[in-house]
Amino acid sequence: MDAWVWIVIAAAIVAVVGVVAALGTSQRRRRGVLQERFGDEYDRTVESDDRGRGRAERALADRLERREKLEIRPLPSDAREHYAAQWRDLQARFVDAPDSAVDEADVLVGQVMRDRGYPVDDFDEQAELVSVDHPSLVQNYRAAHGTYVRKTEERASTEELREAVISYRSLFDELLSGNGERADT
Question: Are 121 and 129 in contact (CB under 8 A)?
Fold first, then answer.
């Protein structure tokens, strides 16, 4: 074989190795960005998607894209005060009516989210989009909503209802004080 053929083969091999290395670096960089952005939510998503890490990472990237299309806005001060008063009333009624307090908490968080600009028609989509801005709170939000669902089936204890209200409260506080930016940056 001529020397120029060997040179072309070597150049092709170097190019392929370079492309593979660049793809690996790109994937590691993307993974690092997603892990930093989503925290525990990254791990939860990867573990729950049995189709692999790549698919889970694409799902997280899709969340980011969907969230970027939303106009999440801060609440006016009068709305924040109104919602805070509603929460205080809800919390005061918990002792006498924990079931209805959880119902009210679920509705109130939904109302605040709607007013801020989050879609609220589908809980799973809602939780996914909240995870972009509040990744440290979304698991508690899912747990609270799960308790709400179990409560409707009369399968939640008073302690679970109390924990649900506390979990709702953490997201409620963030949504109320949030200015449309990611809370934990």
Answer: no
CB 144 within 8 A of CB 167: yes
Burial pattern 147-185, b for ≥16 Cβ within 10 A else e, equals bbebbeeeebeeebbbbbbebbbebbebbbebeeeebee
DSSP code of 52? -
Dump pLDDT digits (tens) for 53-80. Answer: 889 999 999 999 999 999 999 999 999 9
Tell me the residue type at 31: R
Q: Do residues 163 and 156 touch, judged by C-beta distance below 8 A?
A: no
* 80 in Cβ contact with 172 (< 8 Å): no
Q: Which amino acid is at 127?
A: A
What is the pTM (predicted TM-score) of this model? 0.77
3-class secondary structure, 179? coil
CB atoms within 10 A of CB 53: 14
15 by Cβ neighbours in 10 Å (0-12 / 13-18 / 19+) ranks as exposed
Q: What's the token pair of residue 28?
A: 């590691």
Amino acid at 50: D
Q: Tell me the C-alpha distance between 102 and 154, whole Å.
A: 13
d(CA 58, CA 52): 10
